[in-house]
Amino acid sequence: MAKRLLIIDDDPDYVAGIKAILDKAGFEVEVANDPKAGLRALQTRPYDLLLLDIMMGRGAEGVMIARKLRKDTKLREMPVLIITGMREQIAFLFPGEPIHPGFVKLDELVEKPVEPSLLLEKVNGLLQAAEERKAVPQ
Amino acid sequence: MKAKSKILLIDDEEVVRDSCTQILEGGPYEIASASDGTAGLRLVEEFQPDLIFVDLKMPGISGFEVLEKVAAMDPTIVMVVITGFATISSAVDAMKKGAYDFLPKPFTPEEFRLITRRSLEKRRLTLETISLRREKEMLREHFAHIVSHEMKAPLSAVQQNLFALEFELAETLNETQKETFKRTKSRIDELLKLINSWLRFVSVDINQLQEKFVQVSVKDEIARALETIGPYAVRKDVEIITAIDESLHPVIGDGLSLSEAFGNLISNAIKYSNDGSKILVKAEENANDVVVTVKDEGVGISKEDLPHIFEGFFRGKSGQAMASGHGIGLAVSHQIIEAHNGSIEVESEPGAGTTFAVHLPKANPVQPTTG
To answer: What is the pLDDT, as a whole number, of residue B313?
Structure first.
C-alpha cells in the first residue's frame, strides 16, 4: 500500500513543486497550508511521514509543531523531514552543521529548493528507518 | 512642488506677531500665530509647524512651559525663543528646555529672516537624520528577513516547480528541452546563491565566530577550499598551482570560516582570470604570521577601484563585463580574516593580475604541527 505523507507548509506554490515529485514517486500526499490545519490532520489520521516547513506564520511555527509531536507518545514515532528556507540562520549559527543539536530533535533536514533525487532519498531513508524501528520492538 | 514650511508665532504682543508675519511674507512659508501659550499649544497639534517662535514672557503659561510641552509632543519641531529680557541665564534655561536658538528683541528683519532660514535648515536636517537612521536600521536589522521572504521564498518556489516539472516530464523531454531546463535551473540557482551571499554578508557575527576558535591547520583549510572550488577552475581551464609549506604553524580560528575566506579569494581569482591562465596559491610563514597568497594573471583591478573592493556590494568596472560575480565574497573574507586578528592586502596591476595576501597570526605558544 502506498505510504501516506503529510506536507505542512504555508506556501502553496512551493508545496506544489514538492507534491508533484512525491505524487509521481507513488506516494499518497496530503497538504496542510497552515500549522493549525496541519496539527488537526495529524490528530485525525495516521501518516507515515511528515514534511514540515519551519518558517510559517509569524515565526518559526514549524518548530512548535515539531516540539508538540515529540511530546505526543504516538506521533513521536512518525519520522519528520524538515524542509526549510532558513539556511541563512542555520548556516550562520552553526556553520557546516545542517542541524543545530539543541534546535529541536529532528530526523532530517533539507534546504529549499530540494532536488527530486535528494528529496526521494531522504523520504525513502526515513520511511525505511521507521519500518526497521517497528520491526525491532524495544 | 515643495510644501511650504510651517511657522508658528506665539507672542502676546500683536505688533511683534504682525511684524514677524510681514517680514516673512512672500517667502515659502505658511504662517500661523497665537497670542498666548495655551492657544499656541493647541495650534501645535492642528497646524503641525516645522518651526515655532515663542515669547518667553507672556500672560498665562510661560514660554518655558510651552518649550517643555512642545518638546514632549514632538522633539523634532525646532523652537526659537524671542524675548525682551535677553539675559544669558534665561537663554541657557531656554536652551535646556529644548530651544534651538535665541532671538533678543529688538531685532532687524534681516536677523529674523536669517534665523528663520537657519532654523528651518535645522528642522530639515533633523528629519533627514531620523529618516536615514530609520532606513539604516531597517537595512541592518530587517535586510535578512526581507531578502529571505520577499526574494528567496518566491525563487525557491519557482525552482522547486522547475525541478518537479522536469521530474514529471523526464521520459518525454527531448535534448533541447532538457538543455533549457538545465540552463533555467542554473540561472535561478545563481540568483539563490547571490541572495545567500547577501544574507551571509549581513549575518557574519565576529563575536559569535570568536567563541568557537580552536587551533586550525591553514593547509587543511586551503585543501578544503580547493576541493569545493576545483571544478570551477576546470570548467574555465584555469590551472591552480599550490605551494604550501609542509611545516606551517597552526593558527587560532574557525576552520570553516577560514576555508570560506580562502575559497572566496580563490574563486574570485578564477572569476577574473582569462581562460587557460594560472593561479598560484602559496602558504608560507614569517616570524609572526602564516601568510597565504593567491595570485592570478587576470584582468587586474584599477587604482580607483582598489580601495573599495572589501566594502561589499562593490564590483569593479573593469571586471563587470567579464564576470557574473557579485562582490560580496571579498567583503565576507575581509570580515572573517579581521575576526581572526589577521589582515588582508591586495596588489594589482590592470591587465597583469592581482595578488591577495592574507596574514594570520601564528598560534601561541609557538609549537610544531603534528604530521
So the answer is: 56
- Tell me what pLDDT residue B195 has: 80
pLDDT-derived band of residue A108, with 50, 70 and 90 as boundaries? Answer: confident
How many other CB atoms are there within 10 angstroms of residue A55's CB atom? 22
- What is the SS3 assignment for B351? coil
User: CA-to-CA distance for B349 and B155, rounded, in angstroms?
Assistant: 39
Residues of chain B with pLDDT under 70: 1-2, 85-86, 137, 140-145, 148-149, 200-208, 312-327, 365-371
Tell me the shortest Cα–Cα distance from B258 to chain A, in angstroms. Answer: 11
What residue type is assigned to position B196 of the chain?
A: N
Distances in whole angstroms, Cα of residue B7 to Cα of each of B59, B120, B126: 22, 9, 16
Residue B126: all three cell numbers together: 533633523
Instruction: Give the start-to-end residue ranges of the domains of chain B.
Output: 5-107, 142-203, 208-361
Instruction: Please give the CATH topology (third level) of the domain spanning B5-107.
Output: Rossmann fold (3.40.50)
Domain B208-361 in CATH: superfamily? Histidine kinase-like ATPase, C-terminal domain (3.30.565.10)
Could you tell me whether strands B101-104 and B78-83 are parallel, antiparallel, or unpaired per DSSP bridges?
parallel
Pick left, alpha or beta for residue A92 (phi over 0 → left; psi -120 to 50 → alpha; otherwise beta): alpha
Q: From residue B119, give the alpha-carbon distance in Å to each of B135, B163, B191.
A: 24, 61, 48
pTM: 0.53
The size of the A-B interface in CB pairs under 8 A is: 73
Chain B residues 183-202 with CB within 8 Å of chain A: 192, 196, 199-200
The 10 Å Cβ neighbour count of residue A14 is 24
* In CATH, A4-135 is 3.30.450.20: no
The residue length of chain B stands at: 371
Report CB contact under 8 Å: B152, A115.
no
Residue B311: strand, helix, or coil: coil
Does A98 score more than 50 pLDDT? no
Helix (H, G, I), strand (E, B) or coil at B247: coil
